[in-house]
Amino acid sequence: MTEKALRLGTRRSKLAMAQSGQVAEAVSQVTGRPVELVEITTYGDVSREHLAQIGGTGVFVAALREALARGEVDFAVHSLKDLPTTQPDELVVAAIPVREDPRDVMVTRDALKLADLPRGARIGTGSPRRMAQLNAYARSHGMDIETVPIRGNVDTRIGYVRKGELDAVVLAAAGMNRIGRSDEVTDFLSVDTVLPAPGQGALAVECAADDAELIAALAELDDPFTRAAVTAERSLLAALEAGCSAPVGALADLLTDGQSVKEMRLRGVVGSTDGSTLVQLSTTGPVPETHEAAMALGRELAAEMLTQGAAGLMGERAQ
Q1: How many angstroms separate the CA atoms of 119 and 84, rounded?
Q2: Angle at which helices 224-239 and 291-307 pack, to 10 degrees?
Q3: Segment holding 269, helix H or strand E
Q4: CB 214 within 8 A of CB 279
Q5: Hey, which end of the chain has fewer CB within 10 Å, N or C?
């Protein structure tokens, strides 16, 4: 007799279905059980308002978590950058698989790079974090750009460029890779230009905290380095008391000597959306061995950023 299928809760977007499908395959291999996708519509999917206005954090997550709590699905897959930084007691992130490319990318008209965009170029993004850093880059390079708030899935966003309404749009490299459209990317933005959102490119596989058997099976997909990195990034975000609609970028990366991993570097940025003020700092230390050590790394950098004036930039929301 075939074992009962595990039910994986996922958002309905093409990207969510693609990344959930990849996780489903991996879970099926680990458990020997079939995995079926259960499509769930979230408030973030149906609302047309800008994310910063509908609360940003959690709008794509609540419906999935409710389905978990009601036992309608056995586990759920989230884009980690959508998860609120506080974790409900009844749920656990059992796995954070190896991270995809965390960078932001651009799809531009005429295959232009960011540095080559014409004066007055209109760049579409719904993210205050991206706006702040792009505007700061433009200011420091004598460029004249306009950041335009947009929403929508990958097709909608790229459509603005194809139709000539915008000169460029900014997207996450991970999403483009997962849906097999990385060939449409015209510029990969260096993390020195635009730091990604905390947790960008990583997935969170969440299930009920009392399902020990499933937690153990899902844990096989966990990548300890990715988990340490995103834990530090999200700890920074939480310490700055910021939701995912705040203009905060963070990236923890591993420094190697070619042979082995030596240290972890955590970089953080917060800025005014017009790019006139940026607080950008980094810290390097031993690779965190525990959840607490990774959390401490994020908190320490956040504390330094706050002393440099980050708090005054946190209240900004894209209107």
Answers
A1: 38
A2: 40
A3: strand 261-271
A4: no
A5: N
Q: What are the two backbone dihedrals, phi and then psi, of residue 161, each rounded to the nearest 5 degrees?
A: -75, -45
Name the one residue in this structure whose structure tokens are 């991970």. Answer: 174
Question: Do 271 and 247 contact (CB within 8 A), yes or no?
Answer: yes
Closest among 282, 286, 283 to 263, alpha carbons compared? 286
Mean pLDDT of the region 297-312: 86
Look at residues 243, 234, 237, 174 and name the one whose alpha carbon lies nearest to residue 202.
174
Asked whether residue 14 carries a pLDDT value surpassing 90, the answer given is no
Say if residue 318's pLDDT is above 70. no
pLDDT in tens, 91-141: 999 999 999 999 999 999 999 999 999 999 999 998 999 999 999 999 999
Which residue, chain included where needed, has tokens 């947790």? 199
DSSP string, 176-203: HHHTT-GGG--EEPPTTTSPPPTTTT-E
Rounded to an integer, what distance in angstroms lies between the CA atom of residue 191 and that of residue 103? 6
- DSSP strand pairing (261-271 vs 278-286): antiparallel
| Tokens found for residue 310 | 């980050």
| pLDDT bucket at 55, cuts 50 / 70 / 90 | very low
Pairwise CA distance, residues 130 & 303, whole Å: 22
Measured between alpha carbons, how far apart are the two ends of the chain, in Å? Answer: 56
Residue 20 has pLDDT above 90, yes or no: yes
Contact call for residues 9 and 76 (beta carbons, < 8 A): yes
- Helix then strand count (H, E) for the chain reads 10, 13
Neighbours of 295 (CB within 10 A): 18
Active-site positions read 82
Other Cβ atoms within 10 Å of 183 Cβ, number: 6
